[in-house]
Automatic annotation (TrEMBL):
Organism domain of life: Eukaryota
UniProt keyword terms in alphabetical order: Cytoplasm
GO cellular component: endosome membrane
Protein name: NISCH protein
Subcellular locations according to the entry: Cytoplasm
Ranges of residues in domain PLEKHM2 PH: 114-178
BP GO terms, sorted: Golgi organization; lysosome localization; regulation of protein localization
Species whose genome carries this gene: Cephalopterus ornatus (Amazonian umbrellabird)
Gene expressing this chain: Nisch_1
């Protein structure tokens, strides 16, 4: 162990997205190649001697207890657990959640020794995996609020690959089967769910972990919400969501020493008539079973919305993926001026 193909695949995946910054400690991890990466995993991260590293992925992550702090992580999947190797800056990002991370090595802060926090979610504690719309993200749920993590891959390929690898690893787990009822009657015989069959977009894996996928109702709810934000300018049946993508809005930071820009996570939704930016809650919905009250904010909050017919031009950057797009709109004082003129001149 491990095979040359696996080592090569993990080495290829060990690349930090160019648009996101990480600490020195994570940069060190990203610089490891081949067998050095596997040795690093066994020497510093793995909890059991005989566990195997199966998959590596770089992704932004959100925790249920710190829903406003998105942090870069190196996600390592082994045959025993999922490890999230985090930026050390995350510990200080939210003062209210200091009890969530037990910070013991505070005396090392001023030294040249770089720390990374490692959050561990054992596969035996895994209960469900919720896949987001169009595979842009997925949420892993354990048995408590401390064990809910969303990976914002912003990439359907990375999401699909990780889910496939996770299912393969879960198949190796030996779990005790759920007890069957002693007296089987007609209704329990034909009304029970069969393992491994898709029912209501919910796939129950042989390890009894649920994989839940979005259904058409979510798109319908989203279309209804978008129509509400459009102040009823269009009729709902004709409203089609053409594109849903997790992106970043670039905010230029003025007055800073360097010419820098901050990236604000946004959900971009394109319809046949409008372009919307939403602030979306990726971690709280659907509600976990132990949640006693609904989240403090809605799943979708409108950040900006513009009509396509006011779009003047689109500027495209020449850098490689991820592509930067600049949308330039004509700011018309009365947005409904054209519509009202049309109605007045041409009647109904």
């Amino acid at each position: 162990y491990p095979s040359e193909f696996l080592v090569q695949k993990i080495t290829e995946d060990n690349q930090i997205p160019v648009h996101l910054r990480v600490s020195v400690s994570l940069q060190y991890v990203a610089g490891l190649k081949g067998s050095a990466l596997v040795e690093f995993f066994h020497g510093n991260i793995a909890e059991v001697e005989n566990e195997e590293l199966r998959h590596l992925m770089w992704s932004s992550v959100l925790f249920y207890k710190t829903p406003n702090v998105e942090v870069m992580a190196c996600v390592l999947l082994s045959t025993k657990a999922i490890y999230f190797l985090l930026d050390d800056s995350f510990v200080h990002a939210d003062e209210h959640q200091s009890d969530f991370w037990n910070k013991e090595n505070s005396d090392c802060e001023n030294s040249s020794f770089h720390l990374s926090c490692c959050f561990v979610l054992k596969l035996n504690d895994l209960q469900s995996v919720n896949v987001g719309l169009f595979d842009q993200y997925f949420r892993i749920t354990g048995h408590s609020a401390d064990h809910i993590v969303t990976c914002l891959t912003r990439d359907s390929y990375n999401t699909h690959t990780f889910i496939q690898q996770l299912m393969a690893v879960l198949s190796l787990l030996a779990r005790t089967p759920s007890p069957e009822p002693v007296d089987k009657d007609f209704y329990s015989e034909f009304g029970s769910k069969n393992t491994g069959k898709m029912e209501n977009y919910e796939l129950i894996h042989s390890s009894r972990v649920k994989f839940i996928y979005p259904n058409e109702e979510e798109i319908g709810d989203l279309a209804f919400l978008v129509a509400e934000k459009m102040d009823g300018l269009t009729n709902l049946p004709s409203l089609n969501i053409l594109l849903y993508v997790l992106a970043f809005q670039v905010n230029h930071v003025e007055g800073s020493a360097q010419n820098t820009s901050s990236l604000q996570p946004k959900t971009l939704i394109l319809t046949s008539s409008d372009l919307f930016l939403f602030d979306e809650d990726y971690i709280s919905y659907p509600l976990p079973e132990f949640a006693k009250e609904p989240p403090k904010r809605d799943k979708y909050q409108l950040a900006d919305g513009r009509r396509i017919r006011d779009l003047d031009r689109v500027l495209m950057g020449y850098q490689t993926y991820p592509q930067a797009l600049t949308f330039v709109f004509d700011d018309v004082q009365d947005q409904d001026l054209m519509q009202n003129l049309t109605l007045d001149h041409f009647g109904e």
